[in-house]
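README: folding subset

This subset contains proteins for which both the sequence and a predicted structure token string are available. Records are stored as plain text. Below is the entry for SbsA Ig-like domain-containing protein (379 residues), shown exactly as it appears on disk.
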Amino acid sequence: MIRLALFVGLTLALALGDGGFAPTSAPQSAHAADSTPASLRWDAQFGRIWVEGLSAAELDTLAKSESARKRLRVAVEGADSPILGKWEVTAKALTFVPRFPLAAGVDYVASYRFADAKTPELSQRIRIPHPDSPRVSVTAIYPTAEKLPENLLKFYLHFSSPVKRGEVYSRLKILDSAGKPIDLPFLELDEELWDRDGVRLTVLIDPGRIKRGLKPREDVGPVFEAGNEYTLVLDANWPDLTDRPLVAGVRKSIRIVEPDMQKPNPALWRVFAPESSESPLELAFPESLDQALAERAIWVADANGQRVEGSITLSRQETRWRFMPKSPWKAGKYEIRIDPELEDLAGNRPDRLFDADTSETKPEETTWKRSFQVAPVGK
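--- output ---
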């Protein structure tokens, strides 16, 4: 169970860093709780702004002082005066409820200013969808492959616009080959793992049913079994922020193959260096990689070690990585850098297997590198 707790904490940290829930977070300070950075978020379902992760001393000051509470303000973007509303202080948060519902199609900015001027303020831009805006659709589901390993760790669901929170586990299910729902296949978290724009959802398969030796797997077995077929089903009635259903539900067919018990090995990747100053860099992987992490944990550095800015796209069932620099390549040597958080579909990383006892083996703390050369123009 210790391993499971460590996994959950690490997964939340990684998801929130790229897009778990979407709060904006301040650096750790005297105003942050013992280990949780302060964050500000807009709760569209209940029409409320939350500032969480504040220290007990900060919350005590807010409870006693109305002027302190007004450091949390919401205003139309560009306006000098904040909107009217009511502040409340709970044991764990400061909240603000607008006196009147926020208007659809209008841009607002919510901000919280700390008493300590050295701590950067929290802010978030808010826009309420207009009722006549297009209905939400599912734009992608990752992994895109149909054949997936028995120890598959997660799905990513991409939406065209935000949908209501708190609906995930009632709107999403996995059916076996007979059409029967799998009982409790997901790790059901109170804080759903949305990105900052609220359009990408991370759904984790229950790791207790993946890792060998854990009680859930021993009691009820794995979620997936090699050789069987399953269907991931997303309910069309999942409401958007204006309570309209999705354009359509989605069904993804899955064929399960043997579990993946190999670590990703960057040394086995094929590197296709740019053929000209305006050509892309491409990598070919021998297996599908985690889509979100492949877009974040693989990057390019120039000869001075500086990150090269550009855009990344994945294709061929997440086995092909393509990088197009923002500016044309300059002749010289470059490095492809791979952060250790990179994962394959089973959660295996270059430094460790997901199904391993990390309490006994310390993962390597390193960044893997591959080099390539860009030739001078005309050569």
